Amino acid sequence: MTFKQFPEQVFIREVGPRDGLQNESKFINTEDKIEWINQLSSTGLSYIEVTSFVNPTWIPALSDADSVVKQITKAPGVTYAALVPNMRGLNRALESQIDEVSVFISASETHNKKNINKTIRETETVLAEVVRESITNNKSVRGYISTVFGCPFEGNVEINEVLRLTDSLFEMGIEELSLGDTIGVANPLQVRILLEELLKRYPQEKIAMHFHNTRGTAMANVLASLEMGITKFDSSLGGLGGCPYAPGASGNLATDDLHYMLSNMGIQTNINAEKLLSAAMFMQDKMDKPLDSHTVKYRMNN
Amino acid sequence: MTFKQFPEQVFIREVGPRDGLQNESKFINTEDKIEWINQLSSTGLSYIEVTSFVNPTWIPALSDADSVVKQITKAPGVTYAALVPNMRGLNRALESQIDEVSVFISASETHNKKNINKTIRETETVLAEVVRESITNNKSVRGYISTVFGCPFEGNVEINEVLRLTDSLFEMGIEELSLGDTIGVANPLQVRILLEELLKRYPQEKIAMHFHNTRGTAMANVLASLEMGITKFDSSLGGLGGCPYAPGASGNLATDDLHYMLSNMGIQTNINAEKLLSAAMFMQDKMDKPLDSHTVKYRMNN
């Protein structure tokens, strides 16, 4: 019996300040966001998605994107990224001197339409311009495809559409692609099947996985991805986030839980567990409610 | 790149009425326990551990073991088991006509001592008699080893001690062994390493895995076990249970979450998801607090 070896090192993309906060109803003060991101910068994380330059009326929780990016203390060796939906968002992002730009599109027509009121094709046109302009301004770009493993409106999502969008985004010039299980329906078999196709076309270091834990399968999906050679995972400290289509249900995979599993498997992350937990406790205090991660819940009771 | 195939069928051992309830402070009325077990019997589960014949002063939550076993409606095709610590417990179990007896021992000396006030060697002597008497009375026996992947007092647990106890229990005459991650510290690499050793000596159908989700790793550990060919898993409906050493932290792997993942991977369980969820909702109502499973939390918000 032979097994795939696990990778020696994994890179965690912390998305809590963006994907975590955007789904929370409570507005976190700008100074608290900045303090939190500065704490995250000291944990050893090499990548933090700090906010989103969408229209503030869409996501009031992140309406202070410009102030946040301008005031955080950038640590050496950390990439600070922000989500950008269009040229207007990109101009704000460039003005605030973000390191990296993230663009997003859904693999499901209905989800894309409900999310940003454009068809997938219209969105591709917009993103092509955003990516081109980012590169012109010496910014690297990360691409997100959401609802990769299932859509809250359409159910099944075609692998071929995911592959088509993958090609489309890499042709535009993105450096890294993040495949999102936006509503947390993925299972490890699905992960294997998709990655088997994808890794025929692109090397593993270009692919990140973005799981939500809505049905408790996120860590198993991480394991399935590790076995396929994937070394980049998005997660949100404390499991902050929730599912946009089921308030109260579990949300993003928790960075602290992911870090627990990886480090106990001997996989390097360069992250300090105590600093990570301390940053989670800080945000739990500001959110004024118990965070969802197992690591935080365990610590609160011991 | 070749992968281990997943098994076609998995057998879930429902331990909620025993392992779930024993760690909850609230006493569930006998008639409600019976109603719940009867509901579980209708879900398609083939195995239910219904109670524990330990000294009622140890675990007041299960002090009505005799009444529960005598009054449940036994469904055809379902095995009803109960935990038995000693001959006194066995006599009660036999008197109430349980189908199968479960015996337990810890792989950590300190945990065993704190749990049942005996050394491991003393416990082995007791269990040998319990297993012998059970077999004499035509009852099959299931063995549990707890703290297999770590001990709350000693930390590391030696694989050699787990292997020694495995041999000891099978020599006594147990039919199936359940390996317990009592405090939820296991990671998939540990699972692989242990099972690689164990499956050199015993066939996979003799081994069940019993994971707790205290650090969120239970489902990943299930996946690692599936890849090793394991087809038997203990779980507790709704994630009922909690960690005995961290009140409020996540407890047993939730049957409904496990079932979600398995069925979406195309693995047969013969369990009806709706009936399972309905039985979880019944117990959530009786417990008068939100259950911990992701499936229940999701349903409560949709």
From TrEMBL, chains A, B:
MF terms in GO: hydroxymethylglutaryl-CoA lyase activity; metal ion binding
Biological-process GO terms, alphabetical: ketone body biosynthetic process; L-leucine catabolic process
Domain Pyruvate carboxyltransferase: start-end pairs: 10-277
SUPFAM superfamilies documented for this protein: Aldolase
Keyword annotations from UniProtKB, A to Z: Lyase, Metal-binding
PROSITE patterns in the record: PYR_CT
Listed Pfam families: HMGL-like (PF00682)
InterPro entries listed in its UniProt record: Aldolase_TIM, HMGL, PYR_CT
Keyword match Lyase: yes
Family to which this protein belongs: Belongs to the HMG-CoA lyase family.
Keyword Ubl conjugation belongs to the record: no
Name of the molecule in the record: Hydroxymethylglutaryl-CoA lyase
Originating species: Sporosarcina thermotolerans
